[in-house]
Fold this protein.
Amino acid sequence: MLLLDGKTVAQHVRDQLKTRVQDFQGRFRRPPHLAVVLVGADPASQVYVKNKHIACEKIGMLSTVHNLAATTTETELDALLDRLNTDSGVDGILVQLPLPKGLSAERVLEKLDPRKDADGLTYTAMGYLWAGRPFVKPCTPSGVMRILEYYKIPVAGKTAVVVGRSNIVGKPIAHLLTEANATVTVCHSKTPDVGAVTRQADIVVVAAGKPRLLGKEDFKPGAVVIDVGIHGTGGGKLCGDVRFEELEGHASAATPVPGGVGPMTIACLLENTMILAEKRAEGNAR
Ligand code: NAP
């Protein structure tokens, strides 16, 4: 079984970005700038934000983190977003989700200037994606496609099943696979027999958010299995939505957890920031 190593692919993406950052710095006399907003003190969110900050610094991008208290009001968050939206030195903005109770992610997505939407999650970014003219793509779905491309996994003409239909993961992955000419089926929590559907597929992307939901019996021999799920199991160990250890000798290729899709999400965030910076600096942002 081929191990689809997200760390290797993420490194490849970062290496390419490093050159683009240097070129940008040379042309515009400043680095691309990602502003990250963290509201509250959720420990997992703090780790994600720290990792994103470090990743930016490693390739020469500027990252500023705006820490707001969990008691921040909608008006205060709006004011910060207004400031970042109009700050000509900021290229990308990311609001770390989930937000504390009382603050709405939907409102953030409506407030954020789509030209600075580093996560590719605003309704404008979604609309362009659906129209086949993506400006930036949502990071995790984009990461999944980059892994398939890097390992030259054929997608065109294949049958693919996506388990999960969230706006940020399942739906856009299904869309990107369709754009890549796969024939795609989407399963969700109301699908009566998920295994009966996934067993038909050449490629299965699992994003159900349910630890170790699927195993060997749910995939046909030779299937390609991409596991988006990520769950803490206690003691610092992580697992995905797939029982990875069952796949050896059965699947043809699979992503591990950790070290599969996860590293790609941050790499694609950096890439989105780079794209937004170049578009704005060159004066052709939509
Ligand atoms: P989500 O918003 O909770 O969506 C889960 C989706 O899975 C829903 O569409 C749900 O169906 C479906 N589902 C739930 N249980 C199911 C079951 N037993 N069988 C079939 N479908 C089922 O989660 P998400 O944000 O899409 O994230 C999914 C997973 O990916 C989570 O584990 C998350 O932590 C992980 N994730 C990882 C990364 C990364 O960088 N690696 C990034 C983002 C997310 P309904 O629509 O019917 O409720």
Notes: The chain has a mean pLDDT of 96.
